[in-house]
Amino acid sequence: DQQVKQNSPSLSVQEGRISILNCDYTNSMFDYFLWYKKYPAEGPTFLISISSIKDKNEDGRFTVFLNKSAKHLSLHIVPSQPGDSAVYFCAAPKPSGNTPLVFGKGTRLSVIA
Amino acid sequence: ETGVTQTPRHLVMGMTNKKSLKCEQHLGHNAMYWYKQSAKKPLELMFVYNFKEQTENNSVPSRFSPECPNSSHLFLHLHTLQPEDSALYLCASSQVGGVNTEAFFGQGTRLTVV
Predict the structure, then answer these.
(1) What are the pLDDT digits (tens) for B28-44?
(2) Which of A10, A61, A89, B92 is deepest in the core (most CB within 10 A)?
(3) Strands (E) located in B1-113
C-alpha cells in the first residue's frame, strides 16, 4: 500500500519556465510533508517542507502548495534551471509520532537549456 | 558534508561474503535509519533505531543484520546476499521528538552482489 504517490515518473521543462511536480497521499493522518532532491549516486537532500496548518510555503524559487481536501501537494520551481535536473521525492513522516519517512517513487525532472 | 557519512561508497561482494556498511552522523540526532533504493522502486525503510534501540524492522530478511552501538553510529551487516539485494543503501538520521524535523541522508553505499 503506497501511501505517498508520485504518478509522473519524469518531467521535461525548458529552462526559465515553471516546473510543477505533483504528489498525492492517501493517509489523512499525515500532517507534514517534505520534498527531497536527489542527484545520481548521492543521498536525498531536503528541499522544502509544509505543515498541514498551511496551504503554501515558499523558499526562493521553490514553492510547495498543499490541498488537504484533495490530499494533494505540488512543488513549483520557477524559473527552472539546468541544475534543478534531479529526481524529486515527496515524503511524509509516519503519523505514529516517529519520523521514519514514507516516500513516493520520485519524479525525474530534466530542465533543458 | 551532509553530517551523515557512509562507508564504503561502493561495494561489490559475492553471495558467500560477509561485509558491513557503516554510517556515522555528526548532527547529535537520536534516531538513525537504513533505507534501500532499488532501481525503479521507491525508497524502502528497512530499520529504525531510536536512542540505540531498534524500534522498527520492516520485514527485512535476516541476511541483513543492523547494529547500533551508540546514537552516532549505525552498521548494516551483510551475509549470504542475493543478486537482487544489489541496490543503493542509504543511512539517515533525525531528531525524534522535535517538531517537524526532517531526516538527513548520507551519500549512500552502492552495493552490487555478484
Answers:
(1) 988 899 999 887 777 88
(2) B92
(3) 4-7, 10-13, 18-25, 31-37, 44-50, 53-57, 64-70, 73-79, 87-94, 104-105, 109-113
